[in-house]
Amino acid sequence: MVKSGSTTIQKFLEDNRDAVAEAGLFIPLTGTIQHAHNHRSLVAAFSPQKNGNRLLGPLRREFRQAGLPPRALLTAENFSLRFPETGYVDKLAQYWTELGYDLHVAAYLRAQPGAINSRYCQNLKHWTHAMTMTEFAAAEIQSGRHDYSSLFAEVVDHSGIATSFRPFSRRILQTGLVADFLQVIGVAEPRPGAFAETGNFNRSPGAKTVAALLALRRWTWAELPHLTGRELSPLTTPLIKIADGMGWNDRPFYGVDADLHRSIVAHFADSNERMARRAWNCSWRNHFADEEEVARPLSVFDPQSAEGPERDEWNEFVAQAKDMIHHFTSEKVPSATDSGQDGIEDEG
User: Fold this and answer.
1) Residue 69 to residues 62, 96, 198, 232, Cα–Cα distance (Å)
2) pTM higher than 0.85, yes or no?
3) Which neighbouring-strand residues pair with 252?
4) Any idea where the domains of the chain sit in the sequence?
């Protein structure tokens, strides 16, 4: 699932590729050329609306050349978004059945307020929106990507597919997400110390960093509208590293206030309950009551209300970031404004 620790799991698998193979799990390379630690490029290949032979043929050959290993794994968070597409799940199941495999879909489900907050930050890091949290949450709800009972209906109902759904909850995170995932897929450490630990690879930015990225995206849309999120994304890591050094990311951003939290929980309540009954034969609240009953404390930064050195520091960061963008794009940047186009681009 999107924003449920997939990057941390994928980075662990990449860092421990040899040890994972030693443990008996085959992870194909096909479909990972553009996305080194996941199979995102394979997601569209299984669509009945597209000719996937450019990747599905090489994927089949890779498996056969490897001797059709008994256990294999593909990981891509966007698989879940394709499951409702007509014929997608049938094509996916047929492909693996023809290769002699039993298909098992594993997914982590996350309470929607936290998932939407994380996607808000992630999309800012990709420079794909300049919305307020309220605007973004409305767009996310409308997208359907957080309606789990609808997303997974085709998979759950398919007689040829086994499923494992895990709650992306505080308890799971406290005990260890990677350890939980390895248990789900039945992979044990082949020998003591074989697996190198991987931390939280995709750490959330702090409130001041998020406010800066939001201001910068609005500014680029106003002053440099030809620049795409893909072109600006290489600047994200150096900007976040600078913010790290200033202590801005010590506490993660959280922008879902109490009213919005209640609205999101209420919107998905029925769908979540249906999904929980099918996945776990219990109530959704058995896993997420603590996270849904009380909204998390806000962690936001409003540059307009900041004063003194704090505001000066933030303004200096944004000014330097604009200089970086100017240098990076080799263009003369006009006078800055803070108004811009709000929108969200497809992540692909």
Assistant:
1) 10, 13, 26, 40
2) yes
3) 206
4) 6-110+144-185, 207-251+302-329
